Amino acid sequence: MKIGIIGTGLIGGSLAFSLRKSGLASEILAAHYSEEETRVVLERKIADHVVSLETICLNSELIIIAVPVNAIAMILPQVLNLISAKTVVIDVGSTKEIICNAIKHHPKRKQFVASHPIAGTENNGPNAAIDNLFEGKLNIICDAEDSSYDAVELAEKVFSSVGMNSIKMSGNEHDRHLAYVSHLSHISSFMLGLTVLDIEKDERNIFNLAGSGFESTVRLAKSSSAMWAPIFMENKANILTALNSYIGNLELIRDLINQEDIEETKTLLDKANEVRKVLDNKEKNTLIK
Amino acid sequence: MKIGIIGTGLIGGSLAFSLRKSGLASEILAAHYSEEETRVVLERKIADHVVSLETICLNSELIIIAVPVNAIAMILPQVLNLISAKTVVIDVGSTKEIICNAIKHHPKRKQFVASHPIAGTENNGPNAAIDNLFEGKLNIICDAEDSSYDAVELAEKVFSSVGMNSIKMSGNEHDRHLAYVSHLSHISSFMLGLTVLDIEKDERNIFNLAGSGFESTVRLAKSSSAMWAPIFMENKANILTALNSYIGNLELIRDLINQEDIEETKTLLDKANEVRKVLDNKEKNTLIK
């Protein structure tokens, strides 16, 4: 199958590697972005050819859009305008409602499948693309009832060929949950990095004092601003609710520490410990009821 | 060397394994805490005997105190009262100023070395003790000028025998830095866990939607409340400063998201990205000037 990929960074590039390995991709076309990116994409054999957006639209049986979420919402209608009646388009953005709304009434809506493969690292760009990024991970297909049966079937085949299980939910539900289990983590980590850099700017050797706990908590602060700033804007309402709850909980523990209320602090930390059960169940791949 | 360990959990138990392996410990005595802990300590061969605090004080050449920081401040003066003039006492607590102040004027102050080996996991208790926890990590010795030369020399030998380099600083400086590079990370993670559990309590299957980013950020929320609540109290002033800066930065990004100011949000995330340089340098074991 001839596959066009628009956005050959961490996710698009890793998908290219996996789709080639699975045998699903017979030829991969990448959309031109910059000279530097073209060089890396060809050198790393992410794609066979780097071509224009129009060439991709006219020559691919399947198109995967893997650019930042605000760019997806802008490019997707153009892509649908250009494709033939047989081409299927999949996006892999981390927010879904604004993207789905952008083409809600497009005559070719049924040829599009809104997806979110939940996988990634804190790195970005075509050099960050890796093999096996998706193996054993979960993919979410949103508003599947707005896509044709064949398009959804192809999307499921694409993600299962790279080792993922797909589940379905509405774009609205997706955005509400991801605000808590992904977007808030990123904000928490970005701002933790910033806070520590702010305060310790004159004494950077103190980072040598940081243990593995700090590195784990601050890892996501390395993530791409070009990817994440648009996600925060596109999922604004859900993120503001999550962020306000988080700030409220931080104020609560701040006040308990200030009052030296060790018993209430312990109670609060014990409650937070319950996340262990949830994560351990997840590791066992048990769906928690 | 006959070594007594008071507190055979994650840190004390792991030290026992490593000190035995290094050959430095010829015999290890553990302080009795509970029947259950005694069973595990003997079963896992963490110690040769489980005895009373008094027996440890009268029979050890080196005593390591590895209980929660508030318990260290209480036990340490009693231990110093009981030991002979030749015994050296080391603590391994994550805060240092209150502990050092607790025995500042004790006649045997010079036999005590305040230490903080920066190593750990999110697990606790004697079952969490592991081999090689300290290999390649950093140990901090605080207020070394208040300890005798021989005591500091022995402490350095102890930590180097388990694979650690020791550096020196004041207890005050230690507590100020650790508030940022360790204690704040833990608070951030505990409260993130709590926030997500609060909101998603009726729909726990959504944790299946969480990627590795969430797990990394929330890992420390599994940590022991008995260990961390006292740390937060003992380093109250530094932690409140750090926590208020963190809350301020979270309010800043919340307001930028609310105003949909994508450019300023990107600028903020780009600044946070600088943590990458710092952590990469750390990985290379380069001391950053």
SSE blueprint:
Two copies of one chain form a homodimer.
Chain A: E1 2-6, H1 10-22, E2 27-31, H2 35-43, E3 49-51, H3 53-59, E4 62-65, H4 69-82, E5 88-91, H5 97-102, E6 112-117, E7 138-142, H6 149-161, E8 165-169, H7 171-199, H8 212-218, H9 225-234, H10 236-258, H11 262-273, H12 275-283
Parallel strand pairs in A: 1-2, 1-4, 2-3, 4-5, 5-6, 7-8
Antiparallel strand pairs in A: 6-7
Helix pairs in contact in A: 7-10
Question: What this model shows, in words?
Answer:
2 copies of one chain form a homodimer. Chain A is of the alpha/beta class and 289 residues long. Chain A has 12 helices and 8 strands. In chain A, strands 3-2-1-4-5-6-7-8 form an 8-stranded mixed sheet, sandwiched between helices. In chain A, helix 1 links the parallel strand 1 and strand 2. Chains A and B meet through helix 7, helix 8, helix 9, helix 10 and helix 11 of A and helix 7, helix 8, helix 9, helix 10 and helix 11 of B.
Short description:
The first copy, chain A, has helices at residues 10-22, 35-43, 53-59, 69-82, 97-102, 149-161, 171-199, 212-218, 225-234, 236-258, 262-273, 275-283; strands at 2-6, 27-31, 49-51, 62-65, 88-91, 112-117, 138-142, 165-169. Chain A has 289 residues and is of the alpha/beta class.
